Amino acid sequence: MSNKFRKLVLLALCMIVPCVGAAAQDKDEVIRVETQLVEVPVAVTTPAGEPLRGLKQSNFILYEDGKKQEIADFSTAAEPFEVALLLDTSGSTRNDLALIQRSAQYFIDNLRPGDRVAIVSFNTAQDQKSMFAVPEVLTGLTDDRKVLTSTLQRVHTSNGTPYYDALLQIVEKVFKDPPSEAFRGRRALVALTDGVDSSSAEEFDAAKEELEAKSIVSFFIRVDTRDDFESQLTGDCQSAIHFSPAQIRRYYRSISGKGGERAATFCQLGDFERLAVSKRLYEIADLQMNDLAKTSGGKVFPAADLTDARAAFKGVADEIGTKYTIGYYSSNEKHDGTYRHIKVDVVNLPKGTTVRARDGYTAPAR
Fold this sequence. Notes:
By secondary structure, the chain is α/β, with parallel strands linked by helices. It has nine helices and 14 strands. It has helices spanning 3-34, 97-109, 145-152, 163-174, 204-213, 226-231, 245-254, 271-296, 309-320, and strands at residues 37-45, 60-64, 67-69, 71-75, 82-87, 116-126, 131-142, 187-193, 217-223, 299-303, 323-329, 339-346, 354-357, 360-362.
Protein backbone atom coordinates (compact mmCIF):
# COMPACT_ATOMS: atom_id res chain seq x y z
CA MET A 1 0.00 0.00 0.00
CA SER A 2 1.47 3.36 -1.04
CA ASN A 3 1.90 6.18 1.48
CA LYS A 4 -0.52 8.30 -0.55
CA PHE A 5 -3.23 5.60 -0.47
CA ARG A 6 -2.63 5.01 3.26
CA LYS A 7 -3.14 8.73 3.92
CA LEU A 8 -6.40 8.71 1.96
CA VAL A 9 -7.69 5.74 4.01
CA LEU A 10 -6.76 7.43 7.30
CA LEU A 11 -8.44 10.65 6.19
CA ALA A 12 -11.63 8.77 5.31
CA LEU A 13 -11.64 7.02 8.69
CA CYS A 14 -11.22 10.31 10.52
CA MET A 15 -14.22 11.68 8.66
CA ILE A 16 -16.41 8.61 9.36
CA VAL A 17 -15.70 7.94 13.05
CA PRO A 18 -17.02 11.24 14.43
CA CYS A 19 -20.24 10.72 12.45
CA VAL A 20 -20.67 7.24 13.97
CA GLY A 21 -20.09 8.66 17.46
CA ALA A 22 -22.60 11.44 16.92
CA ALA A 23 -25.19 8.98 15.63
CA ALA A 24 -24.69 6.76 18.67
CA GLN A 25 -25.00 9.77 20.96
CA ASP A 26 -28.23 10.87 19.28
CA LYS A 27 -29.62 7.36 19.64
CA ASP A 28 -28.80 7.31 23.37
CA GLU A 29 -30.51 10.67 23.83
CA VAL A 30 -33.65 9.42 22.06
CA ILE A 31 -33.76 6.32 24.24
CA ARG A 32 -33.34 8.38 27.40
CA VAL A 33 -36.07 10.82 26.39
CA GLU A 34 -38.50 8.00 25.56
CA THR A 35 -37.73 6.10 28.79
CA GLN A 36 -39.75 7.10 31.83
CA LEU A 37 -37.86 8.29 34.89
CA VAL A 38 -39.44 6.28 37.70
CA GLU A 39 -39.54 8.21 40.97
CA VAL A 40 -39.72 6.29 44.24
CA PRO A 41 -40.34 8.16 47.51
CA VAL A 42 -38.86 6.19 50.41
CA ALA A 43 -39.30 6.36 54.19
CA VAL A 44 -36.63 4.71 56.36
CA THR A 45 -37.14 4.18 60.09
CA THR A 46 -35.25 2.60 62.99
CA PRO A 47 -36.61 -0.46 64.82
CA ALA A 48 -38.13 2.04 67.28
CA GLY A 49 -40.00 3.77 64.46
CA GLU A 50 -37.85 6.91 64.38
CA PRO A 51 -36.95 8.31 60.94
CA LEU A 52 -33.36 7.84 59.78
CA ARG A 53 -31.88 11.07 58.44
CA GLY A 54 -28.61 11.72 56.66
CA LEU A 55 -28.67 8.66 54.43
CA LYS A 56 -26.82 8.62 51.12
CA GLN A 57 -27.53 7.12 47.72
CA SER A 58 -25.09 4.32 48.50
CA ASN A 59 -27.38 3.15 51.33
CA PHE A 60 -30.07 2.12 48.83
CA ILE A 61 -30.42 -0.77 46.39
CA LEU A 62 -33.42 -0.81 44.07
CA TYR A 63 -35.01 -3.65 42.12
CA GLU A 64 -37.70 -3.76 39.44
CA ASP A 65 -39.35 -7.14 38.96
CA GLY A 66 -36.40 -8.68 40.76
CA LYS A 67 -33.74 -7.03 38.58
CA LYS A 68 -31.32 -4.56 40.12
CA GLN A 69 -31.60 -1.04 38.69
CA GLU A 70 -29.09 1.76 38.41
CA ILE A 71 -30.06 4.78 40.52
CA ALA A 72 -29.98 7.89 38.32
CA ASP A 73 -31.34 10.49 40.74
CA PHE A 74 -31.39 10.88 44.53
CA SER A 75 -33.00 13.52 46.74
CA THR A 76 -32.35 13.78 50.45
CA ALA A 77 -35.00 14.13 53.15
CA ALA A 78 -34.07 17.79 53.59
CA GLU A 79 -35.48 18.81 50.21
CA PRO A 80 -39.00 20.34 50.05
CA PHE A 81 -42.36 18.80 49.07
CA GLU A 82 -45.45 20.02 47.25
CA VAL A 83 -48.63 19.02 49.08
CA ALA A 84 -52.29 19.01 48.05
CA LEU A 85 -54.26 19.23 51.31
CA LEU A 86 -57.80 17.83 50.90
CA LEU A 87 -60.25 18.65 53.69
CA ASP A 88 -63.49 16.65 53.78
CA THR A 89 -66.09 19.03 55.21
CA SER A 90 -69.19 16.98 54.48
CA GLY A 91 -71.52 14.78 56.50
CA SER A 92 -70.80 14.47 60.21
CA THR A 93 -67.86 16.89 59.98
CA ARG A 94 -70.12 19.87 59.32
CA ASN A 95 -70.42 20.74 63.00
CA ASP A 96 -66.65 20.55 63.45
CA LEU A 97 -65.52 22.97 60.77
CA ALA A 98 -63.55 25.13 63.23
CA LEU A 99 -61.75 22.04 64.53
CA ILE A 100 -60.85 21.00 60.98
CA GLN A 101 -59.49 24.47 60.26
CA ARG A 102 -57.36 24.50 63.43
CA SER A 103 -55.99 21.01 62.72
CA ALA A 104 -55.12 21.97 59.14
CA GLN A 105 -53.40 25.12 60.40
CA TYR A 106 -51.36 23.01 62.79
CA PHE A 107 -50.30 20.80 59.88
CA ILE A 108 -49.21 23.80 57.81
CA ASP A 109 -47.30 25.26 60.78
CA ASN A 110 -45.37 21.98 61.13
CA LEU A 111 -44.17 21.88 57.53
CA ARG A 112 -40.72 23.15 56.63
CA PRO A 113 -39.74 26.39 54.93
CA GLY A 114 -39.91 25.74 51.20
CA ASP A 115 -42.74 23.19 51.38
CA ARG A 116 -45.62 24.32 49.16
CA VAL A 117 -49.29 23.62 49.87
CA ALA A 118 -52.55 23.78 47.92
CA ILE A 119 -55.89 23.60 49.77
CA VAL A 120 -58.84 21.67 48.35
CA SER A 121 -62.23 21.23 50.00
CA PHE A 122 -65.92 20.73 49.23
CA ASN A 123 -68.61 23.33 48.73
CA THR A 124 -72.31 23.40 47.88
CA ALA A 125 -73.41 24.64 44.46
CA GLN A 126 -76.91 25.16 43.17
CA ASP A 127 -78.66 25.10 39.82
CA GLN A 128 -82.31 25.62 38.93
CA LYS A 129 -83.26 22.13 40.09
CA SER A 130 -81.20 21.30 43.17
CA MET A 131 -78.22 21.86 45.43
CA PHE A 132 -75.19 19.61 45.05
CA ALA A 133 -71.66 19.17 46.41
CA VAL A 134 -68.61 20.10 44.36
CA PRO A 135 -64.85 19.90 44.97
CA GLU A 136 -63.15 23.27 45.13
CA VAL A 137 -59.46 24.19 44.78
CA LEU A 138 -59.27 27.15 47.15
CA THR A 139 -55.64 27.99 46.45
CA GLY A 140 -52.90 26.60 44.25
CA LEU A 141 -49.47 25.58 45.48
CA THR A 142 -47.81 28.25 47.59
CA ASP A 143 -45.31 28.56 50.43
CA ASP A 144 -46.89 31.82 51.64
CA ARG A 145 -48.16 30.89 55.12
CA LYS A 146 -50.33 34.02 55.37
CA VAL A 147 -52.15 33.09 52.17
CA LEU A 148 -52.71 29.56 53.43
CA THR A 149 -54.01 30.77 56.79
CA SER A 150 -56.49 33.15 55.19
CA THR A 151 -57.53 30.43 52.73
CA LEU A 152 -58.43 28.07 55.59
CA GLN A 153 -60.99 30.61 56.76
CA ARG A 154 -62.76 30.24 53.40
CA VAL A 155 -63.30 26.49 53.78
CA HIS A 156 -67.03 25.69 53.57
CA THR A 157 -69.23 22.69 54.29
CA SER A 158 -71.15 20.70 51.69
CA ASN A 159 -74.27 18.57 51.49
CA GLY A 160 -72.43 15.65 49.88
CA THR A 161 -69.01 14.06 49.51
CA PRO A 162 -67.48 14.33 46.01
CA TYR A 163 -64.32 12.67 47.31
CA TYR A 164 -63.29 10.81 44.14
CA ASP A 165 -63.92 13.90 42.01
CA ALA A 166 -61.75 15.92 44.41
CA LEU A 167 -58.86 13.46 43.94
CA LEU A 168 -59.12 13.96 40.18
CA GLN A 169 -59.25 17.74 40.64
CA ILE A 170 -55.97 17.52 42.51
CA VAL A 171 -54.35 15.72 39.58
CA GLU A 172 -55.92 17.89 36.90
CA LYS A 173 -55.57 21.29 38.55
CA VAL A 174 -53.12 21.31 41.47
CA PHE A 175 -50.57 19.00 39.82
CA LYS A 176 -51.49 19.78 36.22
CA ASP A 177 -48.02 20.99 35.23
CA PRO A 178 -44.86 18.90 35.56
CA PRO A 179 -42.93 19.63 38.76
CA SER A 180 -39.86 21.81 38.74
CA GLU A 181 -36.52 20.13 39.35
CA ALA A 182 -36.70 20.95 43.08
CA PHE A 183 -39.96 19.01 43.52
CA ARG A 184 -39.53 16.14 41.06
CA GLY A 185 -40.69 12.96 42.82
CA ARG A 186 -41.69 14.99 45.87
CA ARG A 187 -45.41 15.60 45.55
CA ALA A 188 -48.01 14.38 48.03
CA LEU A 189 -51.73 14.16 48.65
CA VAL A 190 -52.77 14.62 52.29
CA ALA A 191 -56.48 13.92 52.81
CA LEU A 192 -58.51 14.35 55.99
CA THR A 193 -61.55 12.16 55.29
CA ASP A 194 -63.53 9.05 56.16
CA GLY A 195 -63.12 8.05 52.50
CA VAL A 196 -66.84 7.37 51.94
CA ASP A 197 -67.83 9.01 48.66
CA SER A 198 -71.48 9.93 48.10
CA SER A 199 -71.75 12.12 45.03
CA SER A 200 -68.82 11.86 42.61
CA ALA A 201 -69.31 11.49 38.89
CA GLU A 202 -66.12 9.41 38.72
CA GLU A 203 -65.07 6.25 40.56
CA PHE A 204 -62.05 5.57 42.75
CA ASP A 205 -60.13 3.50 40.18
CA ALA A 206 -59.97 6.44 37.78
CA ALA A 207 -58.57 8.72 40.49
CA LYS A 208 -56.09 6.08 41.66
CA GLU A 209 -54.76 5.57 38.14
CA GLU A 210 -54.19 9.31 37.65
CA LEU A 211 -52.51 9.77 41.04
CA GLU A 212 -50.16 6.86 40.43
CA ALA A 213 -49.32 8.09 36.93
CA LYS A 214 -48.16 11.38 38.49
CA SER A 215 -46.08 9.57 41.16
CA ILE A 216 -48.01 11.31 43.96
CA VAL A 217 -47.48 9.92 47.46
CA SER A 218 -50.83 9.54 49.24
CA PHE A 219 -51.37 10.08 52.96
CA PHE A 220 -54.76 9.73 54.64
CA ILE A 221 -55.98 10.89 58.02
CA ARG A 222 -58.86 8.46 58.27
CA VAL A 223 -61.54 9.93 60.52
CA ASP A 224 -63.92 7.34 62.00
CA THR A 225 -67.41 8.76 61.42
CA ARG A 226 -69.27 5.46 61.19
CA ASP A 227 -70.92 5.40 64.65
CA ASP A 228 -72.17 8.95 64.31
CA PHE A 229 -73.41 8.32 60.77
CA GLU A 230 -75.25 5.11 61.64
CA SER A 231 -76.92 6.70 64.66
CA GLN A 232 -78.82 8.90 62.19
CA LEU A 233 -79.41 6.20 59.58
CA THR A 234 -82.31 4.17 60.92
CA GLY A 235 -85.92 4.94 61.72
CA ASP A 236 -88.29 7.12 59.73
CA CYS A 237 -87.25 7.23 56.09
CA GLN A 238 -87.89 10.94 55.68
CA SER A 239 -85.90 12.11 58.71
CA ALA A 240 -82.99 9.66 58.50
CA ILE A 241 -79.70 10.41 56.75
CA HIS A 242 -79.98 9.09 53.19
CA PHE A 243 -77.60 7.08 51.06
CA SER A 244 -77.15 8.61 47.64
CA PRO A 245 -78.15 6.56 44.56
CA ALA A 246 -74.42 6.27 43.75
CA GLN A 247 -73.73 4.72 47.17
CA ILE A 248 -76.57 2.22 46.79
CA ARG A 249 -75.26 1.19 43.36
CA ARG A 250 -71.73 0.90 44.75
CA TYR A 251 -72.97 -1.37 47.52
CA TYR A 252 -74.77 -3.74 45.17
CA ARG A 253 -71.77 -3.88 42.82
CA SER A 254 -69.59 -4.90 45.76
CA ILE A 255 -71.85 -7.88 46.55
CA SER A 256 -72.34 -8.90 42.94
CA GLY A 257 -73.43 -12.51 42.59
CA LYS A 258 -75.44 -12.62 45.79
CA GLY A 259 -79.17 -13.10 45.42
CA GLY A 260 -82.06 -11.13 46.85
CA GLU A 261 -84.09 -8.13 45.84
CA ARG A 262 -82.29 -4.90 45.17
CA ALA A 263 -83.54 -1.53 46.33
CA ALA A 264 -83.40 1.38 43.94
CA THR A 265 -83.95 4.11 46.55
CA PHE A 266 -83.04 4.63 50.18
CA CYS A 267 -86.64 4.39 51.40
CA GLN A 268 -86.86 0.86 49.99
CA LEU A 269 -84.15 -0.25 52.42
CA GLY A 270 -85.06 -1.64 55.83
CA ASP A 271 -83.06 -0.73 58.93
CA PHE A 272 -80.93 -3.89 58.86
CA GLU A 273 -80.05 -3.44 55.20
CA ARG A 274 -79.22 0.23 55.78
CA LEU A 275 -76.67 -0.84 58.38
CA ALA A 276 -75.33 -3.51 56.02
CA VAL A 277 -74.89 -0.91 53.28
CA SER A 278 -73.13 1.44 55.69
CA LYS A 279 -70.77 -1.28 56.92
CA ARG A 280 -69.83 -2.22 53.38
CA LEU A 281 -69.28 1.39 52.25
CA TYR A 282 -66.89 2.01 55.14
CA GLU A 283 -65.07 -1.25 54.35
CA ILE A 284 -64.67 -0.13 50.74
CA ALA A 285 -63.33 3.24 51.87
CA ASP A 286 -60.77 1.61 54.17
CA LEU A 287 -59.62 -0.78 51.43
CA GLN A 288 -59.22 2.05 48.94
CA MET A 289 -57.24 4.29 51.27
CA ASN A 290 -54.93 1.50 52.39
CA ASP A 291 -54.42 0.35 48.80
CA LEU A 292 -53.50 3.80 47.48
CA ALA A 293 -51.28 4.58 50.46
CA LYS A 294 -49.41 1.29 50.11
CA THR A 295 -48.88 1.40 46.35
CA SER A 296 -47.71 5.04 46.44
CA GLY A 297 -45.38 4.72 49.44
CA GLY A 298 -47.66 6.73 51.73
CA LYS A 299 -49.50 5.84 54.92
CA VAL A 300 -52.92 5.87 56.60
CA PHE A 301 -53.10 7.61 59.98
CA PRO A 302 -56.25 6.53 61.87
CA ALA A 303 -58.12 9.15 63.90
CA ALA A 304 -60.92 8.05 66.23
CA ASP A 305 -62.53 11.45 65.71
CA LEU A 306 -61.60 14.96 64.66
CA THR A 307 -60.02 15.70 68.05
CA ASP A 308 -57.32 13.17 67.06
CA ALA A 309 -56.71 14.87 63.72
CA ARG A 310 -54.11 17.27 65.11
CA ALA A 311 -51.80 14.46 66.25
CA ALA A 312 -52.33 12.63 62.94
CA PHE A 313 -51.43 15.77 60.99
CA LYS A 314 -48.23 16.02 63.02
CA GLY A 315 -47.40 12.44 61.98
CA VAL A 316 -47.95 13.28 58.32
CA ALA A 317 -45.78 16.41 58.54
CA ASP A 318 -42.99 14.38 60.17
CA GLU A 319 -43.30 11.72 57.46
CA ILE A 320 -43.08 14.25 54.64
CA GLY A 321 -40.08 15.87 56.25
CA THR A 322 -38.12 12.62 56.28
CA LYS A 323 -38.81 11.20 52.81
CA TYR A 324 -36.01 10.35 50.40
CA THR A 325 -36.65 10.12 46.66
CA ILE A 326 -34.89 7.70 44.32
CA GLY A 327 -35.13 8.02 40.55
CA TYR A 328 -34.15 5.41 37.96
CA TYR A 329 -34.58 4.54 34.29
CA SER A 330 -35.98 1.04 33.97
CA SER A 331 -33.75 -1.53 32.29
CA ASN A 332 -36.98 -2.89 30.79
CA GLU A 333 -37.45 -0.54 27.84
CA LYS A 334 -40.66 -2.17 26.60
CA HIS A 335 -43.66 0.14 26.30
CA ASP A 336 -46.16 -2.61 27.08
CA GLY A 337 -48.44 -1.07 29.73
CA THR A 338 -47.58 -3.78 32.26
CA TYR A 339 -47.34 -3.29 36.01
CA ARG A 340 -43.74 -3.36 37.27
CA HIS A 341 -43.02 -4.25 40.91
CA ILE A 342 -40.50 -2.17 42.87
CA LYS A 343 -38.47 -3.27 45.89
CA VAL A 344 -36.07 -1.03 47.84
CA ASP A 345 -33.41 -2.46 50.16
CA VAL A 346 -30.99 -0.62 52.41
CA VAL A 347 -27.40 -1.53 53.28
CA ASN A 348 -24.93 -0.60 56.01
CA LEU A 349 -27.74 0.32 58.40
CA PRO A 350 -28.74 -1.12 61.81
CA LYS A 351 -30.53 -4.47 61.90
CA GLY A 352 -34.28 -4.05 62.02
CA THR A 353 -34.34 -0.90 59.90
CA THR A 354 -37.67 -0.60 58.08
CA VAL A 355 -38.14 0.66 54.52
CA ARG A 356 -41.44 1.80 53.03
CA ALA A 357 -41.68 2.71 49.34
CA ARG A 358 -44.16 2.59 46.49
CA ASP A 359 -44.99 -0.93 45.36
CA GLY A 360 -44.65 -0.34 41.65
CA TYR A 361 -45.90 1.53 38.61
CA THR A 362 -47.57 0.92 35.27
CA ALA A 363 -45.22 1.20 32.31
CA PRO A 364 -46.26 3.47 29.44
CA ALA A 365 -47.98 1.80 26.51
CA ARG A 366 -47.53 2.70 22.87
